[in-house]
Queue: 3 jobs
Job 1
Amino acid sequence: MPELRKDPILGRWIIIAKERSKRPTDFIIEDYPTKGGFCPLCPGNEKTTPDEVLVYGREPGMPPNSSSWQLRVVPNKYPALVIEGELDKQAEGLYDRMNGIGAHEVIIETPEHEEHFTYLPHEQMILTFRAYRDRIRDLARDDRFRYVMVFKNYGRAAGASLEHSHSQLIALPVLPRMVSSELDGSLSYYRYKDRCIFCDIIRQEIQQDIRLVCGNELFVTVTPFAPRTPFEMWILPRQHSSSYIEQDDRTMAALTDIFSESLRRLDACIPNVPYNFVLHTQPLRSQPLEHYHWHFEIVPKLTSIAGFEWGSGFYINPMPPEDACRYLREAL
Amino acid sequence: MPELRKDPILGRWIIIAKERSKRPTDFIIEDYPTKGGFCPLCPGNEKTTPDEVLVYGREPGMPPNSSSWQLRVVPNKYPALVIEGELDKQAEGLYDRMNGIGAHEVIIETPEHEEHFTYLPHEQMILTFRAYRDRIRDLARDDRFRYVMVFKNYGRAAGASLEHSHSQLIALPVLPRMVSSELDGSLSYYRYKDRCIFCDIIRQEIQQDIRLVCGNELFVTVTPFAPRTPFEMWILPRQHSSSYIEQDDRTMAALTDIFSESLRRLDACIPNVPYNFVLHTQPLRSQPLEHYHWHFEIVPKLTSIAGFEWGSGFYINPMPPEDACRYLREAL
């Protein structure tokens, strides 16, 4: 079973996922191994994945895991954390460990192997955002879990090991450090100002209009003031809300529109750039938070993490977000 | 001039180093461009680097920047931060920025282009560790700087853009988040236990003897309990001290021995693996700290940072440090 370990100085958690490497020199973390031209995510190969936990668009009367569907969610065949078992926390002298209980799922965003997420038709792309919502809602009922991290790795350089368009989620028994830092930071601003810092950011970005990439009735996309990489983008709902899973279908439709537009602009600037995106939302079963604001962060893979970044937590970014914004605006 | 920007939510600093990218699609951060077979770090090419700020082993009577030397330190030709100017802090609405004052230097560890740091003779390698000490001591006199980050990127995948053996340092006008987290974490342990957490870790590792890779009279090398990557190693002085720059030549010699042995063991496990190492030491001009303990962290480049790591601050590591330690012990 995988194991969670905490660095005793920084409080940073590590997942020791021994099962994912069979040999001492085999370190590539694969979602699924790709053998020759075989794709386990393609229709017809449903039996090569674990049983689906969610499906959209299956024809009536067809059995589970049969090959007619528009979107499927399946457990990861090589999970970083496993779903079975009770949480067991132990000390080892001054160290803390926990068994690796969690869920690790793959969202198969389209049946078409060749389709790019960026260019999915609206009616197909919206299913992905609905699937995130529906899966988090479902996993929230399991009180062993405190957070569901939803993310997409696009391109091999950004960590994707399969071509077929997919994203992932990992349900965690602890609150990740990055999430608690964000909650703490926004709470301390709220205590001082009595306002949500994200709402203030949106107001300032609309007023300044130098990092505002695009917008629609419900959302804005900005290049953040202190981006980690060139062309980093944040997609924020205009209206305050801390919880992604409370969003209705109208919001999902507007999110799909702005996501699609933002990714198309990025693709026009740097064709086929590898990227990661991550959903930021409140912890599971939390009350609505006045100080927190759900959003997506898109981080293109254009710079590398080296000694300086490891040691400092600083990032060196050669492109000011105002320049990136100008390129993105002019791209379409 | 480069600019420092702070993320208003996380307090994370970013260096916007526009000068390092000339064109919108040129994002590779180069220490120095390598053109054909030309190496700016090789003897004979001293005039292609900025003037040296430290040199060891120059023959008596030879002028600065001439071609007889054993180790040179020169300013980075494409610095992330620049040395000239006064610190200037400004607000932009709710955001904070600062002009990019700092120092960015390259430590050229040997005149021999083909030599690997790992296999440098003792008398050559020790110069690198002395140079770190001497440069930090010198930069500490500049009270615009609060920290000097010393690091090495080995191999292209770990961020090195030049083959010739070198490391780097960046003097910073702010305390990096990673450093202050480490200081905070060790201080809160100290307040609770009245002991240095690193001293406790060393005691526990020696007693458990399952993550202890090697040791000598003054140092131990361990695979840490919660490593970010396979074969991560920490080199720690047995005796408590928070400051690298207070170390004498006997300590430098013992450090050279254990560093060399640790890197050779790593190289025997995974030949020519790319890696980063970082010196962790107290902030400039700090009094000696009871709760902090200087050390080096070596992080091999064997896994990738993808969406999950960006979003969570968690790392997924397929190799338990006890296994890595066993491989490293048996390697030589």
Job 2
Amino acid sequence: MTQQQTPAGKRPYNFSAGPAAMPEAVLQRAAAEMLDWNGSGMSVMEMSHRGKEFGAICTQAEADIRTLLAVPSHFHVLFMQGGGLGENAIVPMNLSRGKTADFVITGSWSIKSHKEAQRYCAARIAASNADDQHTKLPDPSTWQLAKDASYVHLCTNETINGIEFQQLPDLTALGSDAPLVIDFSSHVASRSVDWSRVGLAFGGAQKNLGPAGLTIVVVRDDLLGHALDICPSAFNYKTVADNNSMYNTPPTWGIYMAGLTFQWLLQQTEGSLTGVAAMEQRNIEKARLLYDFIDGSDFYANRIDASCRSRMNVPFFLADESRNEAFLAGAREAGLLQLKGHKSVGGMRASIYNAMPLAGVQALVGYMREFARSHA
Amino acid sequence: MTQQQTPAGKRPYNFSAGPAAMPEAVLQRAAAEMLDWNGSGMSVMEMSHRGKEFGAICTQAEADIRTLLAVPSHFHVLFMQGGGLGENAIVPMNLSRGKTADFVITGSWSIKSHKEAQRYCAARIAASNADDQHTKLPDPSTWQLAKDASYVHLCTNETINGIEFQQLPDLTALGSDAPLVIDFSSHVASRSVDWSRVGLAFGGAQKNLGPAGLTIVVVRDDLLGHALDICPSAFNYKTVADNNSMYNTPPTWGIYMAGLTFQWLLQQTEGSLTGVAAMEQRNIEKARLLYDFIDGSDFYANRIDASCRSRMNVPFFLADESRNEAFLAGAREAGLLQLKGHKSVGGMRASIYNAMPLAGVQALVGYMREFARSHA
């Protein structure tokens, strides 16, 4: 897929936290195939999910995400609906067996996950960074893990707070044999996953993989088959797995768009690196550029501890917050969209997912520098 | 929206039961707007669901479906995820209060709904046409409605069996004051709805309204706020309503495509009729053409009682079923796609939703006539 039609640089840079920017080549291809996918005479949206055409799209998408994320064969990949908030209920309905589950609180999303799980199990807080205003991660050596936890939940990248685990904890070394559940919605495919430390990973697609309405679940085989009776069939992982994500009609367009994104990701290279490794390299570079600029400026500030700053979501504040509206208006004029911070945090936030090129971050830094200079 | 680019008649006719054919003008517009919606510089898939652009799309879509379906102001319209199968659990989680609910069994979908509801309440069978192999509707005067039912569930068009309620029952006249819940997935917007007889209506969008992954729920205000504790927040009707369908990230692309379809529907006319009334007239004509042809032929048969044949889904059988493969292969060659019947029923099925023009049914009848002649 190469870029067509739209002249380079014509589209603005979109820093939305999600739904978020998608690769332009993916959008171009979706537009070109809208009325006739691959000579079928149908739009992908018009295909029976049980027909051979959509079957081929779905099979390829699953194979490609397995390649991209190096998913081991003893994990299932499920295409579901309901997003991360849906999974906050679906995970405990499937995994908790009504017993104890441990939550590590690191920001807004893990707080929501913990709260929702209380409907289904004894949801404990094993650790929390609330006293640090979610600006640093609780040290794993201090986590109070329950002996009988059915699982341990982490949000490995907190989209709203901009805080990210740079590596996954080794629960075994911490004395727990519970499976680790990670909500990787907002950094999936931006870095590799150490599956030896994971029991289940879930993510809404709308940040780094595709459109809203598709949820990706990667779950280890042995965790299937333990759902509570009150788990809806459509959200029972075993039922979904046994039916290759077609127990109910899947979000076919979302799977198609994610599949195009997987192919785009597999084609990306940085030096000798490809796929997620190439993206990780590029994401390190993008994040460094932005954080280094912020750290070197008195005009802007980021409040997250340097050891756990998110590569994907960069909240920042103007020293003089009365300039916020002017900053946003100027940014829009400069073709830099959706930079307003989440209402619970305030300030600004630049989400720089896989689809954001280095040139977009360079443009943002250039604008920020000029704005600081002219408002000093 | 007018048709562009693709020459008239070039696209095949797609009789898929769902996901199903969409209006070509809607697909053309989606392709044209893919990289830049309305000068925003963003694809609809790239917009924050909380931004003003998507807010405008969503508000317009809700206003348009309210107009189309003449939804009274004391009903909420919710855009959700999970499809009809999801709603089979979500409805009893929200409405049953753990008590009794009545189900009228008329085919495959109502059987599934009844079975799933048993997880959450005392799900009774008030009537069933199983002894008639789902070929006629149980007479409302024979329904055994519970005095204390929290609701009465009907599937008003059984997609697989091809059987449809031509009018909604008046539960009050039948001695029940329970709200009527209708699954109108496969005939929504093909005919008017008598809301005075309905408490809640739900439907997956992928048959008559848009792409898979979007569920439409229309629910009377007084039915909100009674969910079971184990109802996931993302599927709690009151939570969804209180947040204007944005409690969690909605399926933004699905809402956009459904919105374009609503606009297309509002523009349709037949004589002095517009919108759903125009579609109903057109659907009556399409269905009559196909059923009249089948009834006048010894080569084809439809087994549903004439009083309750579906206008949307027309299952039919070849008298000599050894011709099935040849019939389907010839149909594909003639540009008539996805005519194979559901595996549980066999034979053929032509789904002729709103997006299927009369010319498509004429082409199908022409092919069937010629196939019968040449295989007599």
Job 3
Amino acid sequence: MKIVVTGAAGFLGKRLIRALLERGSMTDSAGERRPIEHIAAFDVVPLEGIDDARVQVSTGDLADPAHLERLVDAGTHSVFHLAAVVSGQAEQDFDLGMRVNFDATRALLERLRALGQRAKFVMTSSVAVFGGALPACVDDSQVWAPQSSYGTEKALADLLLADYSRRGFVDGRSLRMPTIVVRPGKPNRAASSFASGIIREPLNGEPAVCPVDPRTVLWLMSPLRAIDNLIHGHELPAAQLSAGRVINMPGLSITVADMVASLRRIAGDEVAARIAFTPDPAIERIVNSWPGNFSARYARSLGFVHDDGFDSVIRAFIADASTVAA
Amino acid sequence: MKIVVTGAAGFLGKRLIRALLERGSMTDSAGERRPIEHIAAFDVVPLEGIDDARVQVSTGDLADPAHLERLVDAGTHSVFHLAAVVSGQAEQDFDLGMRVNFDATRALLERLRALGQRAKFVMTSSVAVFGGALPACVDDSQVWAPQSSYGTEKALADLLLADYSRRGFVDGRSLRMPTIVVRPGKPNRAASSFASGIIREPLNGEPAVCPVDPRTVLWLMSPLRAIDNLIHGHELPAAQLSAGRVINMPGLSITVADMVASLRRIAGDEVAARIAFTPDPAIERIVNSWPGNFSARYARSLGFVHDDGFDSVIRAFIADASTVAA
């Protein structure tokens, strides 16, 4: 089978491709287990660091129909669509965010519809679709009320994926991801970038700025669990998706203060002292509009997993950093 | 001020234009009351039957940028966007529904954004955005889960309107309308068409088919209250819209059996006997996915109105039919 991965050069994309190569086979939409013969790894920058004959790297513009036709073809059984403009950037550049986060997703869905093979389409959505007056623990029946263009674009894509699946154009699954922590590499323009930065930078001997109040409650998932869930979300039979194709993932609800306490426990006072708390109202406004806890009842019933505690998340990051290039 | 009305030749469009002409003035987004100098009445078929120098009739394609530029110009203070492909047709022709119900709405919002005047933008949405497992009475916090492409397209437009408003591109208000009953004229391809047909046709001496079970609960609003609410929705100051721009309207929750009983009370047994109950599974599937009752708490707090009972809805239809061309 051929699997397309967009956002392949990102830290999740790269880890997903490694996990797929290691598994060696996946289940198609007819429920048949097939060997993975090709992985088309697409991103705006070329994927590097994976040397496997099954992986074809390409770059380009997803909204360009000619490129899309080459990338997604009649042999494509599955697409993992991870490519996105992050929240801070989508807020700054509305047109770019709409084009990448919505129009490109629509173009991908249209391409799969035209091919007529009901391919599996696994996408990452975001808790940024929620906002406004929210209960302490958000249930699966909670209305979407995005307070950012990123959240709006993810909600638009979710609706489209659900209708394309209902009509049988694709076999879609959208996973509403918590904030993924600890991301490796450099800070990015996501409003949530600090959530990884306050762990990663101090561990690397560098200073970090926390732009939100330590009492801020975050909803987190580690990269390891994210990959587990992406693969699980792909493998679930369509018949089990009784409550729809858009699934709020389980996660870890934790305050920033408890994250720092965890870092202090594992790495010591000197490391934790590298975090400076300097409020940034623009980031606080976006981050505080995101819920800090979810019931994720539907996802749990489907067997999606979450991290047991933040200490193990930090330990996994340290272990990962020592074995994987960022 | 100039007001653009799309879907102007429809029964709501026509009644809205008459109501606007009668009022003579409306409030712009700065809160200033202005005389209505121009109403640009757009539809795919020309508006007929309104003879007033303030009304300019045009036809064309809303998704065509050249047409849109002529229709919506720097003098446009407000747009009432009522044009839509109805639910049954949008389900049959996915591309047409997306183009009219979503792409044309987006093009309109983009045009207003480009003009940079934060024009008022009042749109009709639909209870078809809801579906799946629902409580007996749907609250404003209920998640959207459309079970039709029409519902999906209306939810997409709602999300866009909300973000364009949040960013200050437009001053938008989307009114989630109940099924409008009694519509004058002929049956259309809306799945809800029968809800008017079972009252209208018997009163006109014609047979009617009811494709759903008499126990089906519908959520209704009369054309009179719909016009009241469209104008109220336009006039509300933006500062009052504390819980967002997408508003579930209040309505009348009633079973089909009670609608028929009301018709019998007002028009007699002979008239009510003109209704034949012949189930249509395709229509039942769509109609049964729509909730039959809403709290509409937010809308009520904002002063939106609903019908007091179905007898008065029928009486208003009879009075309207004798004074207004369909």
